[in-house]
Amino acid sequence: MNPSKPLSLLCVVEDPAISPSSRLRIYQHLEALQNEGIQVEVVLQPKNSTEWKALLKKAGDFDAVLWQKVLMSHWNALRLRMASRRLLFDLDDAVWMGKKNHIPYRSGKQARRFWFLIRLLDGAICGSPVLEQKLLSIVPKLPTRIVPTSVPERPFNSSTSDASLPVVVWVGMGPNVAQVEAIEEELMRASAAHPFLLRIVSNRPPSFRVFQSWEFTEWSVESEYAAINSSDLGIMPLVDDGFTRGKCAYKALQYMSCGIPVVAGDVGVNREWIQDSGAGLVVGPGGWADGLIALLSDSERCSAMGKRGWEKVQNGFTHEKVGHQLASSLRQLIRAR
């Protein structure tokens, strides 16, 4: 492979209309990849035999194929391996788990597909160290690179919301609202000690049984950062299971980019990227009320944590920084022999 020749990459992604991952991890960085000498074409993952035939014919024209996240049958994985000069994989979730009605479960089928695909790869881009370790447990010598999901670079906002009550914000897709509903009793305990308004930014409102101090903002690309930036504190509740341990703390990084502190479940990379950096607190089951009260009652501590989180994002999680990191990682994986 000529090191001076621009590299060509075919990205095969989920439909961005239904998957934030393709928008945030691939489309977001197309210009950066182009500027760093990687010519990229993006196609959607095939759904039928005609689309598979077209993809397999196209794959060999590129230096590498980057398949994103979704697992495929053994037969399709073999066909794509044979058609590709180099086969790479991008993942930001525990895709070896199954999901039914948005509830994760251990799936033998998914686990077998995952194991089979990983053994065919030339390299992988992982959204977190937890995901990287999972891949290396299957193929210890697999070339991998950790590339987080990026957030916009924003000016530091030292002011708090101008609402009569402190605003605690949660941003996420509708199925994940259940994670907030699961801590309703602790939200009520915290609110009794230090009243606050909970702002839910999603495509569906929560169904709390009793808790009433909340408002709903319909999610959009334009609204989510405005909603975060006018809040005082962000939360990221997660039930600790095999699926959530693969999460890449994207919600927390969004809060940190706006300079607000975070209270998050002690799951996956949250302790390393949030608490160890001084950007907020991680809490276990039963610790949400105490965590929220501790920060809501100490504005100076909140401000300091918000500033440290913002600095953490500036140092390694902005679109510009991650775009460069992705380009460098892809070059290394495509040229590795």
What does this structure look like?
- This protein is an alpha/beta fold and 337 residues long.
- The protein has 2 domains: 7-150 and 318-335, Rossmann fold, CATH 3.40.50; 167-316, 3-Layer(aba) Sandwich (Rossmann fold).
- The chain has 14 helices and 14 strands.
- The chain has helices at 20-25, 30-35, 49-59, 74-83, 108-118, 129-138, 177-181, 184-193, 221-229, 250-257, 270-275, 288-296, 299-316, 319-335; strands spanning 7-13, 38-44, 64-68, 87-91, 97-100, 103-106, 123-126, 144-146, 167-171, 197-202, 214-218, 233-236, 262-265, 280-283.
- A 6-stranded parallel beta sheet has the order 2-1-3-4-7-8, sandwiched between helices. A 6-stranded parallel beta sheet has the order 11-10-9-12-13-14, sandwiched between helices. A two-stranded antiparallel sheet has the order 5-6.
- Helix 11 links the parallel strand 13 and strand 14.
- Helix 3 (49-59) packs parallel to helix 4, helix 8 (184-193) packs parallel to helix 12 (288-296) and helix 10 (250-257) packs across helix 13 (299-316).
- The model has no long low-confidence stretch (mean pLDDT 90).
Which structural class should the secondary elements be placed in?
alpha/beta
CATH superfamily membership of the largest domain, which one?
Glycogen Phosphorylase B
- Give the overall shape, derived from the CA principal axes: elongated
CATH class of the largest domain: Alpha Beta
Tell me the β content. Answer: 15-25%
| Quaternary class | single chain
Number of helices: 14
Q: What is the tally of beta strands? A: 14
Series of secondary-structure elements, N-terminal to C-terminal = EHHEHEHEEEHEHEEHHEEHEHEHEHHH
Chain-averaged pLDDT? 90
Low-confidence stretches: none
Q: Strands of the largest sheet, in order across it?
A: 2-1-3-4-7-8
Whole-number total of structural domains: 2
